[in-house]
Every structure is written in structure tokens, then in C-alpha cells.
Q: What sequence folds into this?
């Protein structure tokens, strides 16, 4: 029973007592007014406003009753009693109150055997954050959750719901304890009704039994619903479009722990939909005739299907198409819906004209209409009656929004445009009428500050065109402004009256703001591990602020963006109460601290690892499986920090990395600090295996939505092993080297979809300096830039292009090192393959080992032909991407060009290779590819043909054999193996991977 009702009953049932109290106390002086407990559930400001009994005034039973009514009306009180005691200086009046409870955090404890998920359990409990709490809600929640478990096959589940008071508040937190038990399994369903299909076919369609092994699945609500729908679809595939499939019951047998579904089925007759006189594909009929989707036949659906077919054929260039339908009587368990389609002759929409317009020019109107004349994209133009009628309304709406209240728009269709058969023209006739203006705008009830803030945003102004659309837009802006400032009950009255002059109105906006509401305090619920200070740093709502639902939700989003919470909910405590200072609640479910992801991938291309054989410097087609493991610990120490381990294993690379991420570094939501360590052993270059041991620190600063700046310092030790060129031949390249490098990276991403962009652009530049100042044993500058753009040409055809340029410039060379050899092998540019230039196998581009001539006292070396990398790169890729089958299968035609160059001065656009020791020229490839869309990006297969692949002289043999080739010996004494073998990269390359090229 609500307290207000109890008070009214007391006044009715005990009038004598009330009269006696009035006669005894009325008129006596009130010495003081107190509250028990002193801390009241409403703010002191509201208490003062509502209290009618004040110290120093005469006591009145009527004032007491009115105060009690006002306090109860806030919704914050469960009980109020008033005591009045005589004292030497007058009456001491005490209001003894009990706060009303409100619903707080809902927590689920116990094993969760999803489904149902934790979220589904909380939802089934039907507790609303901040709403008044009723004791009966506990038992109701238990029943609802028990039903949820039962519908998911957990018939032995145990559910207990209890409450727990949030310390220092009137909030009741809810604890849901669950023990789901074992999930029941389906058994052979009971099938009733007019089936017209074998029982085995129906059971198979349900999906409730695993195929082949015939094991019954565990019961879940979604699987039950999906099974019923699958049976319905099975009938629809048999052309029984009106089939009715109903789940009557799920009968549970506790002794066997099995559930028997009872299906009531009415197969109905076969319904065939045919197109007469004009051929229409079945897929087109299914998409245009709604009887397939609705599973019923009635005139409304058939008329809609006829309209859709008419619009379809008109859009195909048949403006005179006529579509009618008829339904044959039921015969031999079949009814036929026949759409008679008389297409008429094919015509082109050659012209779209607009006449009568004075206020708007043709270009302004044309950009808003759907009809289009013939063009390269629309060979017959774009026309249908539906489009034409829609355009009429669009043009009229444009005029009405600009004050032309009496505008009229009509259109006509003319055949044999300019005397040419088969061509039509559409003309839109516009009767603008007179334009209405605002003679006077009056703002009533607005605070001057609000009027000043709203003035520039209002579309209505004296002397401007008047329209109902603009007035409604102003209404929304004004109400939103007051809503944001804590006036939830604000209303606006818009009054329009005729002015003295014709087609002019006087406009009056009268605001009734109502009481302004404020934030009394912010209460954070549900925290167990996270520091409260982390939450408070991301709140923009503070005590004393206007109660703005918009600001409250912005704070909720900011907490969501931290990525450490499973759910963040917000509410205003007792939102319907009439107090002006209210609590704002943020209810938080902390996510699982540990997340683990495991992935499997593969790449097929011209790849392979280095080995003891030197017989394949060009590489070979290989298969590289990949196994990925990522483990994250979020909200470390309750500070919102994250520790992540990333591991990768393949026959080309073994990698392990550990990172520590601090988001919102130095109180900025756009700044992130990351400490990382990395061990990487890669054999993706056939010449050697590179090993990198690195520690780094990186600061990421979000400059704007598309732009990010990274500042990074890395200190690493790089070394090589398994080198295909004997160590003695290039000792300066194989020694372990320490690199300390400071770098800046700027990226601008305006792509609509980074995984599969169709429009936009991407720019990135990375500049780094390795110097002895940072403890580096090599000194060089490294820069790499990339620009990619994406254009939608027409339909879903996309032109994508990318240019990448990079250079490495050594400085302060050590003695005995040239500028070409100063950069360690693992630090050089390597390229070629599926992401750069598909004329090459993976990392097969650029300079190669061509041996060394004998110097004074030295020994000449035999060329091996293996890639050595370079200090400059230039690549350009162009792709034409287009769909082939539906939205999931597409194709590309591409052209790649570029190479890895010895240094910047060697960069050349030359097409031809000068000789077999010249690798500083531009290598081109053309090819085609297929793309299959998946949730993680397109599955990609490319075939490329190199137009001018490089040739070279390579050694074919083992390392031991190479060491026996002493050029100082006479040629007659050298083994045959020491003769270099002319080779050339394969003209064809094949790549298979995931993700677009760029």
C-alpha cells in the first residue's frame, strides 16, 4: 500500500483523533522543526521548499498534512510520522521518516552455462535501475529467471534472488544466485496435423539432432525457435508458402532428462507464383512479391507485388508496362498466382525537364529527384511511376520548407521525344504560388541568456520565409536546449496568426520551462576491482550541474570506451519524483579480467625459408600456416591499464610480444602510453633468418577523428643466422648490432571501412633516426610514406590506388663500411609479394648478391643471387574492384609497379633491365584476383604476371660447395658447380591470403 493512501485512510477512519489533535495544538507557536534521521532522502533545498511548518510560526494540522503530502509526492519516502511536544518556548515538531528504497546494481553469482548469458539473466529479472524497489519484485524475478532457464533446457536450475543495501544509501542492490544444473536434450518430436512431408524430413529440418551421428542436441531457446522456423522454411521451399508451424509445448521427462517438442503443422496447399507473357526469374519474384516473406495470400500483398513488378520493369526501360494478377482455385492441392506482365516496348528516358520554377534553379531541384535521363551508367535512364510520384512530393516539400505553402507540382510523360520512337521525356510542372514570410517573431517566457543562445540556431526570423517544417525544427531545437539544461518538463507553444499584409504571419514561441532539476550527487554502483577515481576522471556530470540527460549519457559512453567494462548503465534515481535535486546513478558490470584469442591462418605464395642449399634464390611456391595467441589482462591494478601477450608461430616467423598500455595518459582521453618488449625470429627473406630483441616505449596522440600521431623510441638487438651467403663473404652484415631509434609516425585515415575501403583516403608517414646519441651502433635516417585513395566510379565499382616511398640514409659511417653496407640486413627495406608488388615472390624484390671481385690480397667470391635488400623503395598499386556474384564474391584487375633500390640515387622508372647485375629498375605486373567477403575481411586469391621480371646469375649448390670455388685457380681446375647459372624470376605468381592488398 502506498504511504499516501495510508494517510488518507487514517484521515477517514480516525477523524475524532485528528480533531482532538487540532484543538489541542493548533495556533501554538512552533519552537523548532527537526528530522529523524537528520540525513533526509531529499536535498536540503527541496526539503526547505516543501516544508510548510516552520520555526516561529503558529502550528497548523493543515500545514502538517500538506507537508506530508508534498514529501510523499517526491517518491523518496516510504513512511512519515510527525510528533509535536510542548516545551518552554513552544512546540518541538519532529518529522520521523523512512526513506523509500530504489533499485541499484544487479549482480549474478554462480556458474553461467550460456545460454542464457549473464545479460539475459539480468534482463529477465526485470529490475530497472533507479526505479522504486518493491519487495514482491524478488519473487517475480525468481519466477522469470526460472522460466528463462527452463526455456533453455535447464530444468533442474536453482535460482535465488536477494537484496543487499548499498552502504550509506537507500539503494537496494540485487544478488541473483544461480546453479543451472545439467542441460536437457531434445528427443523425437511429436508431429501432429496435416504434414505432407515425411517425419524424417521434418525432424532433419529442425536441426535438433546432429547429422550423421544422430545425437540429440542440448535444448536452448534460440535453437528451439530456429528449429520451428527451419521447418516453416522447409515447407516454403516445397512451395507451401502458407504453411503454419506451431510449437504447442515442450514436454520434459525428468526421468530421462529429455524434452519432447510437440509441433502442430498445417502444410497448406502448394502455391506457385508465375509470371505470364514476360519471363521473370524466381529470385526476382521472391524479392518483389511479398507472399514469400509473409507466408500468406491476400489482395493487399498481391497488389503490392504487382506494384513492385511494375516499378521493376519501368526501371528496366519499360515505362508502359502493365501488371495484373489472378489466383486460380484450389485444385489437386495447388493454387497458382499468375502475374500477367505486358511489358510494352522498351523506351529510353531521354530527358527530364523542369518548368515553372523561379525560386530554385534546375540544378537545385535535379539533385533531389530520382528520375535520371540516359547516361553511361543508366543505359535506359531511371524511371518508374513510383519514382515520378515521389519526385513530385520531394519538389513540393522543398518549396513548402521555404515558405511556398500553396505550391503545386505535377508531372507529364511525353512519348516519341523529339520525334524519335522509343524515347520518352518527363516534365515536372511547378506552380510555386506565393511565398509566405514572418512579419514578427515574438519569444515569450525565455530567459535572456537562453534567448541569446538560441537566436542564431532558430530558422525563424523576421522577414524570412515561413513554413511549418521550420517551426517544428525550431520546436525541437528549443526543447532540446532546455532538456540539456535540466528542464525535463519544458513545453513550447507555437502560435501563428495572420499579419496585416497578405502572405505574412506573426509567429509566437512561448516557452513553459517548468522547474529546473540539478544533480544532487553521482553514485557509482557495481565496482569491485576498479578504482573509483578512474571512473570519476571520466565523468562530466558533477554535483550542482543541471540535470542533463545528454551529459549523463556522454559520460556513460566515455566509461564504455575504456574497454574494461562489460556493461555501463545509467539512470536518474526516482526520475518521476518532483524533487529538483536528484541522484545520478552509474551502474557498472566489470568485464572478465582475462581474455584469450586463438587464431589460425595461412598464406600460399612464392615463399620459403633459407636453408643450407643455395639452389633456389628465386624461392618456391610454399604454404605457410600461422597460429596466433593473444592473452590480455585488462583493468590491471584497477587503473584501467592493460597487459597483453601476443604470440605468433609459423614456419616463417616466431614472435612473442608483451605490452603494457596506459590509456588516457596525463588525463587526456586522446593519449595512450605503451611499453613493449618483443622477440621476433623471421625467415620470410630467403637470404637469412633475422632475430630481433626489442624494448620500446610509444606515446599515441589522437589529433582528430581521422588523424593520429605516434612518438616512439625503440632499443633493439638485431642479428642474422642461417644466412644463405657464407659468413666469411660478408662479415660486416652478419654481426649482431644494437639499434637505438627515435621515430615519429603520422597517420590520417578517412576510409569508410579500413578492412575493405570503397571510398576515402589513407596517408601515413614514418620518420626515424638511429643515432649513437641513443646508444645505436649504426647511424641512419629512415623514412617511409604511404598514400592510398579509393573512388567509387559507379555502382559498386571501386578504383583503388596506393603509392609507397621510402629511404634509408646512413651517416657518420664507421671505418670500413660503405653507405650501402652500413645498414644491417634486418634493418633494410625488403619488398615484393602480395602487399607491395605481385611481380615478385614474398620479399624477392631489389638488389641481389652478385659476388665480389678480388681486391689486393683478397679473394673473389661467387654470386649466389639471393636478395640483399636496399635503402630505398618505390611501389605503386592500382586495382579496379567490382562485384561478381551478389555482395560476397568480387573480383579485381590490378597493376603493380615498383622495386627495392640500392639507395635513393638509384631510384629509376626505367622499364628494361640493363644486365643481369642491374636491379635498380621498375618491375611491372598485371593480374586478376577474386575476393570472398568474410567477417574478418576479404578472402583473397591473386594471380599476377610479371611483364619484365629480373634476371640474374645465381649459384646452385650447397654452402660447402660454394666455399670450394676459388676464383684464383685456373678455370680448368674449378669444379663444374662453380659456374654461375643464369636465372630469372617466374613470370607468374600466385597469392592466397586474407584482407585486401591495401
A:
Amino acid at each position: 500500500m502506498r504511504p499516501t493512501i495510508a494517510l488518507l485512510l487514517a484521515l477517514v477512519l480516525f477523524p475524532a483523533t485528528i480533531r482532538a489533535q487540532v484543538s489541542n495544538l493548533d495556533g501554538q507557536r512552533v519552537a523548532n522543526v527537526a528530522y529523524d534521521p537528520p540525513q533526509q532522502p531529499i536535498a536540503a533545498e527541496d526539503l526547505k521548499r516543501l516544508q510548510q511548518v516552520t520555526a516561529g510560526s503558529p502550528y497548523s494540522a493543515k500545514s502538517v498534512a500538506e507537508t506530508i503530502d508534498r514529501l510523499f509526492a517526491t517518491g523518496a519516502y516510504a513512511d512519515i510520522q510527525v510528533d509535536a511536544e510542548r516545551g518552554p518556548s513552544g512546540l518541538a515538531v519532529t518529522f520521523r521518516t523512512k526513506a523509500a528504497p530504489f533499485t541499484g546494481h544487479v549482480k549474478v553469482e554462480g556458474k553461467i552455462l550460456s545460454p542464457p548469458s549473464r545479460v539475459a539473466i539480468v534482463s529477465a529479472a526485470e529490475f530497472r535501475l533507479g526505479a522504486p524497489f518493491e519487495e514482491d519484485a524478488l519473487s517475480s524475478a525468481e519466477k522469470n529467471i526460472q522460466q528463462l532457464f527452463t526455456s533453455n533446457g535447464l530444468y533442474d536450475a536453482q535460482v535465488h534472488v536477494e537484496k543487499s543495501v548499498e552502504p550509506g544509501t537507500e539503494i537496494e542492490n540485487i544478488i541473483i544466485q544461480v546453479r543451472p544444473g545439467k542441460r536437457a536434450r531434445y528427443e523425437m518430436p511429436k508431429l501432429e496435423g496435416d504434414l505432407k512431408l515425411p517425419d524424417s524430413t521434418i525432424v532433419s529440418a529442425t536441426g535438433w539432432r546432429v547429422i550423421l551421428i544422430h545425437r540429440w542436441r542440448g535444448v536452448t531457446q534460440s535453437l528451439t525457435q530456429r528449429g520451428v522456423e527451419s521447418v516453416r522454411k522447409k515447407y516454403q521451399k516445397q512451395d507451401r508458402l502458407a504453411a503454419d508451424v506451431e510449437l504447442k509445448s515442450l514436454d520434459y521427462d525428468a526421468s530421462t532428462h529429455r524434452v519432447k517438442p510437440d509441433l502442430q503443422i498445417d502444410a497448406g496447399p502448394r502455391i506457385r507464383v508465375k509470371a505470364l507473357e514476360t519471363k521473370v526469374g524466381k529470385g526476382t519474384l521472391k524479392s518483389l512479391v511479398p507472399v514469400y516473406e509473409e507466408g500468406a495470400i491476400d489482395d493487399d500483398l498481391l497488389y503490392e507485388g504487382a506494384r513492385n513488378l511494375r516499378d521493376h520493369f519501368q526501371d528496366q526501360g519499360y515505362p508502359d508496362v502493365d501488371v495484373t494478377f489472378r489466383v486460380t482455385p484450389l485444385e489437386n492441392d495447388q493454387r497458382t498466382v499468375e502475374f500477367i506482365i505486358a511489358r510494352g516496348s522498351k523506351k529510353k528516358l531521354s530527358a527530364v525537364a523542369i518548368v515553372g520554377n523561379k525560386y530554385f534553379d534546375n540544378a537545385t531541384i535535379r539533385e533531389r529527384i530520382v528520375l535520371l535521363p540516359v547516361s553511361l551508367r543508366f543505359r535506359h535512364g531511371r524511371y518508374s511511376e513510383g519514382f515520378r510520384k515521389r519526385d513530385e512530393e520531394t519538389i513540393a516539400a522543398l518549396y513548402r520548407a521555404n515558405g511556398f505553402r500553396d505550391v503545386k507540382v505535377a508531372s507529364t510523360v511525353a512519348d516519341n521525344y523529339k520525334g524519335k520512337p522509343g524515347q520518352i521525356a518527363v516534365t515536372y510542372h511547378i506552380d510555386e504560388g506565393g511565398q509566405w514570410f514572418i512579419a514578427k517573431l515574438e519569444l515569450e517566457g525565455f530567459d535572456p541568456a537562453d534567448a541569446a543562445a538560441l537566436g542564431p540556431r532558430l530558422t525563424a526570423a523576421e522577414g524570412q520565409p515561413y513554413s511549418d517544417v521550420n517551426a517544428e525544427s525550431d520546436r525541437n531545437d528549443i526543447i532540446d536546449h532546455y532538456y540539456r539544461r535540466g528542464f525535463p518538463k519544458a513545453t513550447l507553444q507555437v502560435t501563428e496568426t495572420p499579419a496585416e499584409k497578405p502572405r505574412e504571419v506573426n509567429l509566437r514561441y512561448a516557452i513553459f520551462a517548468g522547474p529546473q532539476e540539478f544533480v544532487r550527487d553521482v553514485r557509482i554502483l557495481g565496482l569491485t576491482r576498479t578504482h573509483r577515481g578512474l571512473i570519476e576522471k571520466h565523468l562530466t556530470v558533477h554535483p550542482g550541474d543541471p540535470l542533463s540527460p545528454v551529459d549523463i549519457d556522454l559520460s556513460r559512453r566515455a566509461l564504455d570506451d575504456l574497454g574494461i567494462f562489460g556493461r555501463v548503465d545509467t539512470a536518474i534515481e526516482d526520475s518521476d519524483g518532483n524533487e529538483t535535486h536528484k541522484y545520478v546513478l552509474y551502474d557498472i558490470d566489470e568485464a572478465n579480467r582475462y581474455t584469450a584469442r586463438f587464431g589460425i591462418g595461412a598464406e600460399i605464395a612464392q615463399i620459403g625459408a633459407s636453408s643450407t642449399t643455395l639452389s633456389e634464390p628465386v624461392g618456391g611456391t610454399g604454404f605457410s600456416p600461422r597460429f596466433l595467441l593473444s592473452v590480455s589482462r585488462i583493468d590491471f591494478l584497477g587503473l584501467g591499464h592493460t597487459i597483453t601477450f601476443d604470440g605468433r608461430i609459423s614456419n616463417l616467423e616466431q614472435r612473442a610480444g608483451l605490452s603494457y598500455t596506459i590509456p588516457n595518459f596525463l588525463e587526456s582521453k586522446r593519449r595512450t602510453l605503451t611499453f613493449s618488449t618483443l622477440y621476433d625470429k623471421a625467415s620470410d627473406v630467403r637470404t637469412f633468418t633475422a632475430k630481433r630483441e626489442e624494448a620500446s616505449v610509444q606515446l599515441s596522440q589522437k589529433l582528430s577523428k581521422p588523424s593520429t600521431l605516434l612518438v616512439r623510441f625503440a632499443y633493439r638487438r638485431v642479428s642474422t643466422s642461417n644466412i644463405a651467403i657464407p659468413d666469411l663473404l660478408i662479415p660486416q652484415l652478419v654481426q649482431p648490432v644494437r639499434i637505438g631509434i627515435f621515430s615519429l609516425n603520422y597517420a590520417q585515415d578517412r576510409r569508410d571501412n579500413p578492412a575493405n575501403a570503397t571510398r576515402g583516403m589513407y596517408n601515413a608517414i614514418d620518420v626515424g633516426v638511429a643515432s649513437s646519441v641513443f646508444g645505436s651502433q649504426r647511424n641512419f635516417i629512415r623514412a617511409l610514406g604511404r598514400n592510398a585513395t579509393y573512388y567509387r566510379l559507379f555502382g559498386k565499382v571501386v578504383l583503388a590506388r596506393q603509392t609507397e616511398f621510402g629511404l634509408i640514409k646512413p651517416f657518420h659511417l664507421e671505418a670500413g663500411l660503405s653507405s650501402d653496407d652500413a645498414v644491417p640486413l634486418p634493418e633494410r627495406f625488403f619488398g615484393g609479394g602480395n602487399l607491395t608488388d605481385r611481380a615478385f615472390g614474398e620479399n624477392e624484390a631489389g638488389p641481389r648478391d652478385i659476388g665480389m671481385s678480388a681486391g689486393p690480397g683478397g679473394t673473389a667470391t661467387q654470386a649466389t643471387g639471393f636478395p640483399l635488400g636496399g635503402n630505398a623503395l618505390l611501389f605503386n598499386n592500382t586495382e579496379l574492384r567490382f562485384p561478381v556474384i551478389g555482395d560476397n564474391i568480387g573480383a579485381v584487375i590490378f597493376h603493380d609497379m615498383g622495386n627495392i633500390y640500392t639507395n635513393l640515387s638509384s631510384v629509376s622508372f626505367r622499364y628494361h633491365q640493363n644486365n643481369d647485375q642491374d636491379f635498380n629498375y621498375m618491375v611491372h605486373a598485371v593480374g586478376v584476383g577474386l575476393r570472398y567477403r568474410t567477417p574478418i575481411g576479404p578472402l583473397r586469391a591473386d594471380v599476377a604476371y610479371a611483364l619484365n621480371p629480373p634476371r640474374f646469375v645465381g649459384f646452385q649448390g650447397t654452402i660447402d660447395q660454394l666455399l670450394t670455388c676459388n676464383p684464383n685457380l685456373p678455370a680448368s681446375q674449378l669444379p663444374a658447380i662453380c659456374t654461375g647459372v643464369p636465372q630469372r624470376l617466374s613470370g607468374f605468381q600466385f597469392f592466397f591470403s586474407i584482407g585486401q592488398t591495401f
Observations:
- The first helix runs from residue 3 to 13.
- The mean pLDDT is 87.
- The chain is about 20% helix and 40% strand.
- Residues 102-179 form a domain with the Ubiquitin-like (UB roll) fold (CATH 3.10.20.310).
